[in-house]
Q: What sequence folds into this?
């Protein structure tokens, strides 16, 4: 039986808005509506861009439940539920499943830097604890740990491990060659969405889509429809903006950008701080060039 495809196209890794350092549910609802109105194909809540590392579990699950209710099945809701403690990952995955998430985005264990066998066992146990689909999230730049293509192949044989958000472009071709065609690949790097789709990715889970959801939807939809040149033009036009949105650790710049266009999403929780003046000036210029401000 073929694996389910949670989405194709552009999923926004939605930011978590704060007001006086508490989760701003009214603003989160506004952001969700903005994304759906502008074509985002899925909502990823409580991921890296959503500052999941500073969300206590109760707040994390409340955000997922709220997003599920407000989205109302219009697009899939995929909840971040990764941990470097396997039992905690199991408990959190079960909690977001109970909250109504359509799927789980599960980042590789970080800091304790396990072996490939440890990675396999970690994901095997998490997958066995829930029924909903799981997307593996491989982001070596954050975790200092890469999931090798052979391990991804082995994990892809587990029924409800259906996809990977891949940030290591150098191994995408190997993943495509090793895994069955029903295993989905999503780009985890906004600057190389089209190149990754040329190797077989079916879309992106994007930070930049918080700011320009329509463009990212159109870029991925164009590629999937066979309009490669149209997709390429959107990717190239967005490159300078994307670079500016990652000039400091994410999600600091994307929150600053949303505040600059009047979204009023608040600032990041510590230890993340506001952008330096020099980098903020670079971001503003990139937004002016893109005609956002």
A:
């Amino acid at each position: 039986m073929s694996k389910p495809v949670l989405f194709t196209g552009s999923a926004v890794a939605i930011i978590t808005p704060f007001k006086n350092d508490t989760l701003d549910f009214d603003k989160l609802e506004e952001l969700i509506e903005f994304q759906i109105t502008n074509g985002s194909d899925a909502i990823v809540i409580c991921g890296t861009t959503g500052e999941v590392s500073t969300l206590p579990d109760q707040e994390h699950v409340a955000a997922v439940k709220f997003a599920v209710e407000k989205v109302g099945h219009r697009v899939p809701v995929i909840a971040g539920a990764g941990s470097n403690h396997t039992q905690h990952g199991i408990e959190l995955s079960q909690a977001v499943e109970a909250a109504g998430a359509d799927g789980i985005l599960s980042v590789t264990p970080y800091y304790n830097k396990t072996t490939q066998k440890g990675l396999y066992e970690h994901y095997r146990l998490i997958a066995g604890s829930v029924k909903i689909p799981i997307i593996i999230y491989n982001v070596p730049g954050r975790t200092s740990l890469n999931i090798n293509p052979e391990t991804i192949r082995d994990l892809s044989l587990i029924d409800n491990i259906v996809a990977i958000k891949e940030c290591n472009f150098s191994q995408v071709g190997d993943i495509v060659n090793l895994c069955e065609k029903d295993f989905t690949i999503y780009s985890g790097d906004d600057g190389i969405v089209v190149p990754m789709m040329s190797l077989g990715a079916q879309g992106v889970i994007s930070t930049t889509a918080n700011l320009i959801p329509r463009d990212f939807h159109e870029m991925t939809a164009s590629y999937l429809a066979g309009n490669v040149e149209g997709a390429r033009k959107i990717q190239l036009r967005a490159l300078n903006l994307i670079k500016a949105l990652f000039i400091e650790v994410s999600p600091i710049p994307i929150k600053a950008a949303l505040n600059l266009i009047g979204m009023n999403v608040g600032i990041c929780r510590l230890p993340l701080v506001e952008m330096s003046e020099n980098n903020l000036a670079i971001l503003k210029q990139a937004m002016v060039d893109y005609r956002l401000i």
Notes: The chain has twelve helices and ten strands.
